[in-house]
């Protein structure tokens, strides 16, 4: 598989921009006025300029186009090669001086006069090998620098400045004075680099000016947010941040592993991981990188969950997955002032933050697994392997929050915030248990020889028990919060959280549950008031139920003489209090005469409510196929699609049950 040029350029761009993040990280962690002792105002000014120039260089590396960025790194590599040439020259001078001193000491002991001429130098094989090695090294470095900088004239020979000590040694220059030649080569090279920078300073200013003008024009044309988002995506900033934080995290673990402090090893590997994570989120850049890394890890876990449940055929990579966990981590870190804490405090707080992120991740995994689990049971999927995988995953997701709750309660005292966090884990476990119970009921109905007519009621009871348990947990959190506010320290933020929790998790749950109960109670009362069909009526009807398309061995008769399964009609009445076939109002007493509704006028009313033109409704009626609604009754009409105010949750439940 060949990589495209765009992929290669994007990868190179990410790798070349990561050092800018390390430079910004060091810039945030460094305070030059505290790190270096200043003895004069001039030194302080120079140090301050260098400090902010480092930030400007880091920003330039992060924002330069790839072409200019590659050029910058070429110059940087050339500067590094010249530094290597300096080190080679320094080593050569040091070795020559050391051997000369040893020879002088030996000559003084034996009263021998040494010959320092060229002939004596060439007779010594060690000296010849050293000379050849250092000359070859200097020529090679100069050739590479000339090639990278595309120097083709006589200037490339000036890059051999650090070969001067070798030449001076061959020329008979005193060994004790070789360091002067080395110092001259160093000063000459520095001047050469400064001349190169000065010569290209105009180009540097033009590039910066062009970039600033393009940025200003983009901001004025498209706005700040679209430009920032485009830069975030095209520069692959999340990938840069994730790579930066991963390298920093591994380096921090390496430091702890090779440290002589054995106290941290006695605390266990978990403390080492938390301490390393605490050290790697001490600045705004590293904190943002941590949140992005959590996003990528969460996205990978969720994608693997979907891949595990559905396989490669149904797998689709969703890049938006995992951002909930990353934003949660960022918001809580800012709320708790994570950056202002000491490393040890950050490590302990990191355990709470990771617990919250893990709870959110488990909830997201459950939201992926729940519809797949219920679809397997409702559709009577024959693949046992798929059932085992889904059930096994749900079992793990059910037990993991309980273990996490037990683990964290051993290390921290229970307060209101911890209670809110723990309650979310318990709610997740309760929801997963409820899904497993519903799955078991559907599977029991599948293995029965005949359909279970009470299945809908039992499933509703199971879901109702789950909702009641969720409501009890929410009420317990409210009671605990009120207790903490009255007995403990009152906090305005805690009061806001308590009010929000009361509204969303208590009042709305209670209101939704009560509304669902009333709908079912009214529907059951209407169905029970309808007469059951006799055997002669069933034989005369001799058709399937118009709702579920199944044979009817028992049925109930509506006032308009239509026959339906009692369970199917009750599900219909959860949504609409009219006959599914002719729109006759079933809310009235069955003993009272009831006039059938005009389907066209009913459709017109619903169309007006939905802001639909009447002619569109009439066209829809002409095109709608009436063959699926066939019945032995002569007054059968079409069911208007606009006449039902659908409820998504009820229809989803109806689809699963039917």
Automatic annotation (TrEMBL):
Annotated InterPro entries: HRD1_E3_ubiq-ligases, TRC8_N_dom, Znf_RING, Znf_RING-CH, Znf_RING/FYVE/PHD
Report what the protein is called.
Answer: RING finger protein 145
Q: Where are the transmembrane segments?
A: 12-28, 49-66, 72-93, 131-148, 154-172, 184-205, 211-232, 239-257, 269-302, 347-366, 390-409, 416-444, 464-482, 489-507
In this chain, composition skew of type Acidic residues spans 637-658
Q: Name one Pfam family in it.
A: TRC8_N
Subcellular localization is given as: Membrane
Bias regions of kind Polar residues — which residues?
Answer: 591-601
PROSITE patterns, A to Z: ZF_RING_2 (PS50089)
- RING-type domain residues are 545-583
Membrane topology annotation: Multi-pass membrane protein
Q: Where is this region: Disordered?
A: 586-658
Bias-annotated ranges (Basic and acidic residues)? 613-626
Q: What is its main location?
A: membrane
Q: Keywords, A to Z?
A: Membrane, Metal-binding, Transmembrane, Transmembrane helix, Zinc, Zinc-finger
DNA damage keyword on record: no
**Per the record, what is one GO cellular component?**
endomembrane system
According to its UniProt entry, one GO biological process term is: ERAD pathway
Top-level taxon of origin? Eukaryota
Per its UniProt record, what PANTHER family does this chain match?
A: RING FINGER PROTEIN 145 HOMOLOG, RING ZINC FINGER PROTEIN
Molecular function (GO) terms for this protein are: ubiquitin protein ligase activity; zinc ion binding
Biased-composition ranges for Low complexity? Answer: 627-636
